[in-house]
Design brief:
Length: about 120
């Protein structure tokens, strides 16, 4: 399984960005997908996750009400819509997939998000 993120970039505080994660393979619909982020010198932190059906969502407190995670199993994609961005959202954002049936996990290469004040 390969995960490829896109959509990162530089934006001013209060702006929006849309991150996408495209996955290879035919079993995308069976996994749990998440977005993580990492700042240099700090641990990688969970931003949001979505169940295989899309019916269960989970967000970090710091992004609730501003970020929205979604997925399209027909297109093997996951999206993170980020609104009202803050400088503290600056990080490398990673796409993550967990397949419960095999316990295998996969990471994307990451995409930089920079929010200027």
């Amino acid at each position: 399984v390969q995960l490829v993120e896109s959509g990162g970039g530089l934006v001013q505080a209060g702006g929006s960005l849309r991150l996408s994660c495209a996955a290879s393979g035919s079993t995308f619909r069976l996994n749990v997908m998440s977005w993580y982020r990492q700042v240099p010198g700090k641990q990688r932190e969970l931003v949001a996750s979505i169940s295989s059906s899309g019916g269960s969502l989970n967000y970090a407190d710091s992004v609730k009400g501003r970020f929205t995670i979604s997925r399209d199993n027909a297109k093997n994609t996951m999206v993170l819509q980020m609104n009202n961005l803050k400088p503290e959202d600056t990080a490398v954002y990673y796409c993550y997939a967990w397949y419960p049936s095999t316990t295998r996990t996969y990471w994307g290469q990451g995409t930089q998000v920079t929010v200027s004040s």
